[in-house]
RNA sequence: GCCAAGGUGGCGGAAUAGGCAGACGCGCAGGUCUCAAAAACCUGUGAAGCUAACACUUCGUGCGGGUUCGAUUCCCGCCCUUGGCACCA
């Protein structure tokens, strides 16, 4: 609600007066205006910075796009605008802002797009590149164009390969068998993200698992550090939490059980079970091995042949199933009893040893000790196979009867019973006590497990950097020597995914055949390419050093510009990209290649732009391409509209009507400045000075909190205020242009120039507000009765402090004299009075 | 199931060291201008009640409690939406 007078009739130019001004002065043509300033900026290098000499370097990074879709997505533009506004704000705050851009055009996304449109990925890459850079040049970002990088460029992926070799030399790259997602219909390996609910994203057929030899990066070696360092970086909390969950640290104990025969005779073998809940071990009644467990092989001599055949048949059938199927929660438990037992040292009890596919080899130790009374899964298993159930915990409900239904299964909390020396203890305390006890006895060993698994690097695809390794029969795996980098991706016609679990490169004999770098004998190249995420996990290091041909990154420039000061990007990369980048940076640090452990000092996640309440997607056909809006309204309107939708972290729903409203606002700003600049005053009135300072403060507050929507709203209020003034000071209008600059860079430049400003508005410093001006002489106090607002009263600032009793009494007298207060107080007694400095007086009556 | 974020007019949203709920905008309605329309501009716009009018009163921030002089904001218990993780031992 505006408190300023609304009848501004005499303050505004009449229509006649307006018409007397020449038409051209009032025609707002954003397209012409924007293209004019684009070329001026380019010509004068307004947005270029000298990376070597910049005084106060500030690395403002945004996630580079996958140029795989039909063009820049309005969601990309949302993210880039949000980041650019921040960069421009920092620039006006006096920093030399480096704002690079590039394309993450290597990898499966781009290859799939090429498959879809039926073009060779290399050909499509050039088309996408031209289109993306064209669009990116129109959105008003202060990109450092000279530094742009594309991951599919040999000058870039040469260093991606070099990084692979550094990982190999550091012992952090290794080969192992791994299950991969296999689509039998497309005859290809799929990335995890291409598997939707166990089915192929493209043809919907059921995905199978296949075992293949693959390259891995040992990210698990860094699990603890990736977790610990989270406390050192300023990131959106939700992203930190997502990473923490993904790393999934679990502290527990490996308990070793002796395997015995039916009659109790030990066979000389053991089974190790990892558990985080050893407190319930007095209630353990069975042990389950994963079907893939290597322990099974060792136990074979002690398992009866007719049982062994059942075990192997079971293991074979579970192998056919995809991981998704196996862990489907609702599925009924299955399993085979081995005929063997594990001895529970605590109770002396023989626990039957089973094999079941609900136990996953890669989790914990691949073996589980079953406590059916206090674990729902174990309960289901025990119920199915009629195994003993013992209660060892009593929960808050006090139920201490035998456990016969799943609702009685007490998992999270309670007090120990039937557990010898643990009885009466809270489960948390019991866990500690029993852990120490088991370790002391030599029955168990405290361990930490992580959910995080090693990073699978290999892709049996074409469109990626060939993994720079050579396999020699005599010397084993050898890295390609530096002088032979890059290993160029051969241009082949038959680049489509093959059916045999190998990359299409395997069919290119001229590529595969090579010599061993060590013994010079004949050898074969690795034919897999590396994961897209490897390309994108170091691109920020390349940006400043793009000009360097001899190193991946220049030491001096890297010292100067990194780590990244502000990174804005999508929350969908919370775990993969952001974790891999952190991992690699830590490795580089350990190898002495960089001087910092964390790549991104500050990270903020932006929200998602949706359309009509739904996610934009190709299949729904509701993707908004910014082109048509850029063409119709220009970049400034689109930028401001997107930012006005809500806080940057929230995203928003794209609509055409809102777009139009923002266009109208910018048009009003334009006319206002042209009109008011005619009779600009030098003198700034007190009222103006106050509003100017307040606006600077508020707009800046919105910028700092990435709530650009509020900054724009304050600018609108400011414009509404200026509109109502008969005469406006030059300072008011200059301030408007400067404050508008981060949001609508083209229009702001135009206005700045019109006002006679020199050089670029974007090189101006962000204005300072004057706190003294913001202190008012009169302050409005709210008058409440029983907490309900009844009136308001203006008092002098000194009195509004309400510090002394004398001041309080003086204000109270004024308040009591108010007619409305009198009415409400009639016949009532004031029981208490609440004074809040500069805010209010509340009278509490009976 | 677990973790996280959120629920405020017709719509997007604003306001949280507890203190004017609905800033700003969209939409809608009425008006000015026009032969007419568009554009532009002006006025109004949470609901209900009461007024000739100005005004005033009551209700109102997902639901139910609580703390407080005072709660959109803090606490407890629910419901719903969105995102992430999930037979994780």
- Compute the CA-based radius of gyration: 35 Å
Share in helix: 25-40%
Helices and strands: which structural class? alpha+beta
Total DSSP helices:
30
Global shape: globular
Q: Which spans have pLDDT < 50 for at least 5 consecutive residues?
A: 1-25
Q: Any overview of this molecule?
A:
With 846 residues, the protein is an alpha+beta fold. The strands form 10 sheets. Strands 11, 12, 13, 14, 15, 16 and 19 form a 7-stranded mixed sheet that branches. It has a 5-stranded parallel sheet with strand order 2-1-27-28-10. β22 (469-472) and β23 form a beta hairpin. It starts with 14 loop residues before the first helix and ends with a strand. The structure holds one RNA strand of 89 nucleotides.
Descriptive key words:
35 strands; 37% helix; 5-stranded parallel β-sheet; single chain; disordered N terminus; 846 residues
Short description:
The protein is an alpha+beta fold. It has 30 helices and 35 strands.
Topology:
Layout: H1 15-20, H2 23-26, H3 30-44, E1 57-62, H4 74-92, E2 96-98, E3 102-103, H5 108-117, H6 121-136, E4 149-150, H7 154-169, E5 173-183, E6 188-190, E7 195-196, E8 199-200, E9 208-217, H8 223-228, E10 234-235, H9 237-247, E11 249-260, E12 266-275, E13 286-289, H10 295-299, H11 305-320, H12 323-326, E14 336-344, E15 349-355, E16 367-370, H13 376-385, E17 393-394, E18 415-416, H14 427-441, E19 444-450, E20 455-456, E21 458-459, E22 469-472, E23 476-479, H15 509-512, E24 513-515, E25 522-525, E26 529-530, H16 532-536, H17 539-542, H18 555-561, E27 566-570, H19 576-590, E28 602-606, E29 609-611, E30 614-615, H20 626-632, H21 635-644, E31 652-654, H22 656-676, H23 686-704, H24 708-724, H25 730-740, H26 745-754, H27 771-774, E32 778-785, E33 788-796, H28 797-800, H29 805-816, H30 819-825, E34 830-836, E35 840-845
Parallel strand pairs: 1-2, 1-27, 3-4, 10-28, 13-15, 27-28, 29-31, 32-35
Antiparallel strand pairs: 5-6, 5-9, 7-8, 9-20, 11-12, 11-14, 11-19, 13-16, 14-15, 17-18, 21-26, 22-23, 22-25, 24-25, 29-30, 32-33, 34-35
Helix pairs in contact: 3-26, 21-22, 22-24, 23-24, 24-25, 25-26
The protein binds one RNA strand of 89 nucleotides through helix 9, strand 12, strand 16, helix 13 and helix 22.
